[in-house]
């Protein structure tokens, strides 16, 4: 509508948004959008003439530097809105962390996931920003009507600002400093260790998470590789054959590139058991079938355990 030089009224916007979002659209949603991204739109009440009648309607005007809105403008505005909304949730998360025992402190830019006990679905609704109200014109014919109008105006101006009660949101369970039979110092160490684990989990990078997932699959893939070579009754197989056979039998849908990466990690972590050989333009895999499979699996499982302890 903006690029067609049409006035974006709430009356036009409501059915269009409801058709797209499949849910009811209210002015309160616009108030929340303004609260999250105050400079996204300019809001004003404008009078329109329809069927010889004049009606007021809320008009939105996008705040952009150019006359027409491009796809790049839409993407940039969407990213800015998403970032601002995420920042509000992170603020609630920070307050939740400070209410724990012991309290946790983590910079918002280092946060990669929420605390396991953070109730995301209980985060308060976004506060409502003020929108221009429809002007009203009253004709007073008596002193009583003037007094009633003044009383309504006074009552409407006396408003209490909403206060978010985070204490009610994140109810802190009363924790005793001592438990029967357990020293207080030991309890403190346990809580500090739990807090440290939670802190590391919330700041774990995507690369570390992916590395952890890869290592977690290695024992099972190693078992499949061993069974494949035993079934084929060969000590050397082409890499393409191994990747195709593993892709058909492994429970997780991994592409050939990912499966090859897993095999190379196994070759690195258990030297000599799985060896890559390149002959001309073909890559082969040689398996040491005399090696004890349980020993190989123990090494890979130990690797997973060590990674979990250091995460």
TrEMBL record:
KW Cell cycle (keyword) present: yes
GO CC aspect terms: nucleus
One of the Pfam families matching this protein, by short name: CDT1_C
Occurrences of domain CDT1 Geminin-binding (ranges): 1-133
UniProt xrefs under InterPro entries: Cdt1, Cdt1_C, Cdt1_C_WH_dom_sf, CDT1_Gemini-bd-like, WH_DNA-bd_sf
BP GO terms, sorted: DNA replication checkpoint signaling; DNA replication preinitiation complex assembly; mitotic cell cycle; regulation of DNA-templated DNA replication initiation
Entry GO MF terms: DNA binding; DNA polymerase binding
Keywords assigned: Cell cycle
Family classification: Belongs to the Cdt1 family.
Protein name: CDT1 Geminin-binding domain-containing protein
């Amino acid at each position: 509508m903006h690029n067609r030089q049409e006035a974006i009224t709430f009356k036009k916007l409501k059915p269009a948004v409801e058709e797209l979002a499949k849910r009811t659209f209210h002015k309160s949603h616009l108030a929340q959008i303004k609260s999250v991204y105050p400079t996204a739109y300019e809001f004003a009440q404008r009078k329109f003439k329809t069927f010889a009648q004049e009606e007021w309607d809320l008009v939105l005007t996008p705040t952009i530097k150019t006359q027409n809105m491009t796809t790049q403008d839409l993407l940039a505005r969407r990213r800015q809105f998403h970032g601002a909304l995420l920042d509000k949730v992170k603020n609630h998360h920070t307050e939740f962390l400070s209410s724990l025992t012991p309290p946790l402190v983590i910079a918002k830019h280092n946060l990669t996931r929420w605390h396991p006990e953070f109730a995301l679905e209980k985060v308060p609704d976004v506060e409502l920003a003020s929108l221009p109200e429809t002007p009203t014109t009253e004709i007073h014919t008596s002193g009583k009507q003037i007094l009633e109008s003044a009383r309504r105006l006074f009552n409407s101006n006396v408003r209490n600002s909403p206060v978010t009660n985070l204490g009610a949101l994140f109810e802190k369970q009363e924790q005793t400093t001592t438990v029967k039979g357990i020293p207080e110092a030991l309890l403190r160490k346990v809580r500090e260790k739990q807090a440290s684990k939670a802190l590391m989990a919330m700041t774990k990078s995507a690369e570390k998470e992916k590395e952890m997932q890869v290592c977690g699959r290695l024992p099972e893939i190693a078992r499949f590789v061993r069974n494949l070579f035993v079934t084929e009754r060969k000590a050397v197989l082409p890499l393409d054959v191994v990747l195709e056979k593993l892709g058909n039998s492994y429970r997780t849908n991994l592409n050939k590139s990912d499966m090859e990466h897993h095999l190379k990690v196994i070759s690195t972590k258990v030297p000599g058991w799985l060896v890559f050989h390149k002959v001309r333009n073909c890559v082969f895999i040689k398996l040491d079938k005399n090696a004890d499979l349980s020993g190989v699996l123990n090494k890979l499982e130990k690797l997973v355990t060590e990674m979990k302890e250091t995460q």
